[in-house]
Amino acid sequence: MTKIGLIVNPIAGLGGSVGLKGTDGMVEEALRRGAEPLSNARAAAALRALMPLRDTLLICTGADQQGGSCAESLGFKTRILHEASPRSDAADTRALAKKLIEEDVRILLFAGGDGTAADIYEAIGEKQPVVGIPAGVKIYSPVYASTPKAAGELARLYLAGTLTTLREVEVLDIDEELYRRDRVDVRLRGYLTIPEEKRLMQGRKAPSPLSEAAAAHAIAGSIIRDMEPDTCYLIGAGTTTRRIMERLELPNTLIGVDLICNKKLIEADVYGSRILELSEGWPLKLILTVTGGQGFLLGRGSQQLTPDVLRKIGKENIIVVATQKKMAALGGQPLRLDTGMEELDGQLAGYYRVITGYDQVVVAKAE
Question: What percentage of the chain exceeds 70 in pLDDT?
Answer without folding.
Answer: 86
